[in-house]
Every structure is written in C-alpha cells, then in structure tokens.
Amino acid sequence: MPALVIIDMQQDFVSPDGAACVAQALPSVPAIAAALQHARARDWPVIHVIRQHAADGSDSEPFRREQPVCVADSWGAEVVPELVPLPGEHQVVKTRFSAFYQTRLDEVLNSLNWPELVICGTQLPNCLRGTVHDGVNRDLHMSLLVEGCSAQTPAVAEANFTDMANFGVRLLSLADLLNGDQVH
User: According to the CATH classification, is domain 3-178 in 3.90.1150.10?
Assistant: First the structure.
C-alpha cells in the first residue's frame, strides 16, 4: 500500500497573494485533491508535509531569513482549504527543502513499514527534489504524481521530471493512480 505525501501546499506557495507563490501550484490543486480523495477512500496513509517558521526567520534558509515564508500561525502557513489534513492523518513540519531533514518523517515511515511514496506538491526544483533525493538515498520506491507537482514554469517542471526519472523515480499520471497503477 502506498502512502500519499503532500508537500508545502500552503497559502504562501499556492495563493497568488502568497509571499512565495509558485506559478503552477494553484493549477495543481485539483489533481492533488483527487489523489487525496482516492487515498482516503482506500485507507492509504496520508502525510502532509508543511513548512513552519519563526516570525524572525531564524529557522529559515539563510536566503529567506529577512522575509520568512509560512510563519507559524499565519495565513501564509495555512494549508489550502481543498487539502486540509483530517484528524488521524500524519503531519510533518519542516524548516528546509527536504521533508526528511531534521523532521520526524523517518519515524512516520517506519511506523508505516516504509511504503512506496507517491509525492506531490510544490515546488519541483526545491522541496520535492530535496525530498525525493533523500528518499532515493533511503532506497524507497518513489513516484511523482505528475499533475500534482508544480514549479514556476513548465520548462522547469519538465527538466526536473526528466532528471528525477533518470535516477529511478517513477512518473505517475493521475489517471494511472486513479486506475490502480500506483505500486511498483
């Protein structure tokens, strides 16, 4: 059974009014919502990975310390309404690109017997890529939900898909996921 991992689908990244809006993030919400509904209907584990930073930016990457994003308890840190976690779904808070870096994601995955991960969210060259690299380094079976991943431009998205496929990450369409073709 796979686990669906949704990364950084928060107002600061998704909303056009967000502090670090990713151009393709808002258009990816319907595909992620469909995958989330599918996962919930099948009792797959769902892991919501969210950014959360101190207002002074002290726990942000150095380049964001002057203007931190996803400040704890702010509108920008809120998960978009279509993807809000339900009680019982896992939430992992992170302060860097990778969902594995200084988080409890390894602990969560261990409790789930290290399932295949279906990754979606934003943004491909940063948080998705960092998480995928760390997952591959852990010998995890990783899939990217193509329609549920976003970047600033289609060219950036395609370059990242091509590169990650070249190191063993499966590119999974929403149609294939919904038709049951999600497991290696």
Answer: no
